[in-house]
């Protein structure tokens, strides 16, 4: 399969990490979203939304949306719990990540790192909601090792992508001991170097 992705995007890296962890063969095709490479007729034919990541299988089928992709790729692996309720909890966190985490943590990072804004220019509501997401994660991880149980699941992969880089969005992880512990353990499980 071919993965069309931007290696600066946590959503794209989720797919790469799952493939690497599960030793799934793929070819990475770097897409520069800021140069409009997702808006070409060829790309829009694969993904009408014009977004990365997008994967294309050898038979020509395509799949988009990071959490849908990793859910499909890891369907028969240890990254998906065996217990049906644990799977539902994993999915709960996958949906929450895209609705209540990524729009704040990742967007603030994008504005600082890629748009060159100063922290003082960030939307205070996005910052507030980003900290609310981190607070919820901290409370959960203070009681459990990982998001869907005792083992790393896709929920952890999904939430790790932008949480490990939250500091680049102006978020201070200093007061989040459980999150910092979880980041280190999830990075080690996935074979990632520690985020700087």
TrEMBL record:
Keywords: Transferase. InterPro entries: Glutathione-S-Trfase_C-like (IPR010987), Glutathione-S-Trfase_C_sf (IPR036282), Glutathione_S-Trfase (IPR040079), Glutathione_S-Trfase_N (IPR004045), Thioredoxin-like_sf (IPR036249). Residues 1-81 form the GST N-terminal domain. The keyword Membrane does not apply. GO terms for molecular function: transferase activity. Pfam families: GST_C_2, GST_N_2. SUPFAM superfamilies: GST C-terminal domain-like, Thioredoxin-like. Residues 83-196 form the GST C-terminal domain. PANTHER family: GLUTATHIONE S-TRANSFERASE-RELATED (PTHR44051), HYPOTHETICAL GLUTATHIONE S-TRANSFERASE LIKE PROTEIN (PTHR44051:SF2). This is Glutathione S-transferase family protein. The lineage of its organism: Bacteria, Pseudomonadati, Pseudomonadota, Alphaproteobacteria, Hyphomicrobiales.
């Amino acid at each position: 399969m071919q993965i069309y992705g931007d290696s600066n995007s946590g959503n794209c890296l989720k797919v790469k990490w799952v493939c690497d962890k599960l030793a799934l063969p793929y070819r990475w095709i770097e897409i520069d979203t800021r140069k409009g490479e997702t808006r070409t007729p060829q790309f829009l034919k694969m993904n009408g939304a014009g977004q990365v990541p997008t994967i294309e299988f050898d038979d020509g089928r395509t799949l988009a949306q990071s959490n849908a992709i990793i859910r499909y790729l890891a369907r028969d692996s240890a990254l998906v719990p065996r217990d049906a309720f644990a799977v539902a909890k994993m999915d709960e966190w996958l949906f929450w990540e895209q609705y209540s985490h990524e729009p704040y943590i990742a967007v603030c990072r994008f504005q600082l790192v890629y748009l060159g804004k100063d922290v003082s220019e960030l939307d205070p509501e996005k910052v507030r909601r980003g900290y609310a997401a981190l607070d919820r994660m901290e409370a959960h991880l203070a009681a459990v090792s990982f998001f869907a149980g005792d083992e790393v699941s896709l929920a952890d992969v999904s939430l790790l992508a932008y949480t490990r880089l939250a500091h680049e969005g102006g978020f201070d992880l200093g007061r989040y001991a459980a999150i910092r512990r979880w980041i280190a353990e999830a990075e080690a499980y996935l074979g990632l170097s520690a985020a700087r």
